[in-house]
Amino acid sequence: MANKILSPQEKRIEDNRGQVVFSKNSRIQRLYDSFQGSRSSVDVQRAKYFTESFKTTEGQSLVLRWAKALYHVAENIDVIINDDELLVGRVGGQGKYGLIYPELDGCFLQSFAQQAANRVESPFEISDEDLRIIQEEIAPYWDGKTYYEDLARSLPEDVLKITYDPVDTFTSRFIANETSSMRSALQWVHDFGKGIDQGFEAIKAEAKDKLDRLNPFDPHDSIDKAEFYQAIIIVSDAIILWAQRYSDEAKRLAGAVTDDKRRQELLEISRIAAKVPRYPADSFYEAVQSQWFIQLFSRLEQKTGATISNGRMDQYLYPYYKKDMDAGKITKDFVKELFQCMWLGMAQYQDLYVSPAGVKFNEGYAHWEAVTVGGVDQEGNDAVNDLTYILLENKREFPLNYPDLAARIHTGSTREYLDQVATTIRDGAGFPKLLNDEEIIPLLVAKGADIASARDYAVSGCTEVRMPNLDTFTTPCAFINLGAVLELTLRNGRMAKYGNELLTVETGQPEDFASYEDFEQAFIAQERFILRQTFRQQYIANRTRPKHFASPLGSALHALCMEHGLDLHSEHIPGGVDLGYFDFIGLASVADSLAAIKKNIYENKTLNWQQLLAAIEADFEGFEDIRQRLLHSPAYGNNDSYVDEIAKTIDRVGVQFAKENARYLGVNIDLRYVSQSANVPFGKVVGALPNGRKAGTALSDGSSASQGADINGPTAVLLSNFNTKNTNYINRASRLLNIKLSPSTVAGQDGNEKIIAMIRAWCKLKLWHLQFNIINRETLLKAQQTPELYRSLLVRVAGYSAYFVELSPDLQEDIIQRTEHELTA
Fold first, then answer.
1. Which residue numbers are catalytic?
2. Is the pTM of this model over 0.90?
């Protein structure tokens, strides 16, 4: 790439010829080298022991069964401590591993086991013995018992046919795609502070006290609540036992090593693991180990969407950090080393999706245990501290995709903080993503949160947020394919992919609409019909999930669950704020298409419906002149009111529907634009569109512009985002916004100034989310040609970063085709 300015990440890769080098810390380098070359493999231990326990507890309450199963896992799962580790704990075998959760999607296990190693998206290897265990011991027990099967059986026929293939309900149609069967719960953030500061002996004592106070004459108390608190006691014992097993193993290893330094490290690990998370942490080292144990045990408990996030680490760990730093007990380098040990532990865990739809939505082994930094505290003051800066520095110095890092921004964010954020962004690995306090906090308050809890939100998953101890809704929600909605309008309730089957309602043939307004009304009718079916789908999911999942550990760390004796997956928990959502996928693709129809057919009359439909039917083969005309129509992302108003109308229909109908579900179900990597599989079922997009290609992602359509610079992208928000409604949630910048335009301190100016503009516009890819197109093309030299190349996909060479060719192409913007001073 002669004469090309490289991002720091690109330069590292070129200098090291694709190898990741941690030159400052040989321990961390050795830990990384010990697993990075290994293939991702399936570990069946959690599924095996969980299933063994469930076979013996049939007929008991679900929360009790879950706690007992976790105890059985805790006392039997392998305990492994590797050389050089300072933090201990893993939930699988050596190398990179993923877990299966048969209670969720055991119905897919037989086919998954045969195909896992050869999947295009996120392949996993399975040993012959583990394959036998899956096929003979695990899958047969769960046949007919899984949540996926129960949900499919429960959907009415008219909802089923836009969700799954009615003949083969294991196949998703990607029209209104439920996501509740891909994970046991929505993305989540625990109150880690409670586990670290109090310890599980105190949590167990709290449960015993509440158990003793129950009314023996009230069956709800003496049966339901009693079983809940008994489950809390059992799960507390389980995590204590599991940590103690690590203490015992560290002590055993200490007696066998000859190196004095390592012996002392192992003895200290043994001491700490015997103490936390059983008892309160007293030091920074103990607090970090306690958090890691809690985080890992959460993965044994259930498949949480995106994996349990780390919350505001710069807040709940800061008292321990400050105390030990002031006393001279720790150094900045040691703090970074501990964090790096944690990130390497995360990197070895691979979030495994068994369902065919789930893996397509989360390519690149995606999991994002977001660490949240910055923002305001509960009193509204700037919350940035020394640990904030250490975490930002650590991210720049540590070329790994874990952890995901999220920086909260508010109008009072200091120049120093923004400069550090900009420097980290400029590194080019896609970190941190930005969340806007000025948009998020007022929305949370409007939806029922108290101001202190709203200010204390943490990023969870892609771009979502959670308020520990106040959020109570855990049922994953639906993704709606706007590209499919448009095709249903063009084909009178049908899609080419699914033949002549009437999928929705007949709204008329396009050529019969006398005006654009008539056509737009037909589109809105299809949009509202899909929304109605989606809400019915969600109602059934909300009602069905509590029969299949329990979360005693998550409940133990939630104040309202403990107060009311209710599992976190209960349909309703008093005092909680229930925040759910539905996603629109392909906003820009559809807004651009509607604008092209309006401009070319009804206003300029340069095309008629017969010509346009013929071009679409032919996927533009032989109609390149028409395609070029469509491609040069007004496009979202350019601050063009012509198309932005259309996008705003699409959005308004969604938020209006939510306002009118969410009450029937009993929760806040709001409109969100977070595609993950779903815009790729959703695009595969949609034919050619009137914006010139070819059949089967990716739809636009999140609230970003169509690939390559945003030609007026990044500020115009921000303004289009702002222009399309219906701010008179509170029934809105996250809008994921990807922007790709040329490294040359943000090089050096001048580049920092440009990024800071853009961040401040974004903050003032009160947009929810912003994230960057800073990379040269040529680098991405070279990575496709010689992937072995670019194994460590990180790119921002959606709300997460992933290794580019581990993505499918379709998703790689989606990222390549995003506009590479220049920033002006």
1. 462, 464
2. yes
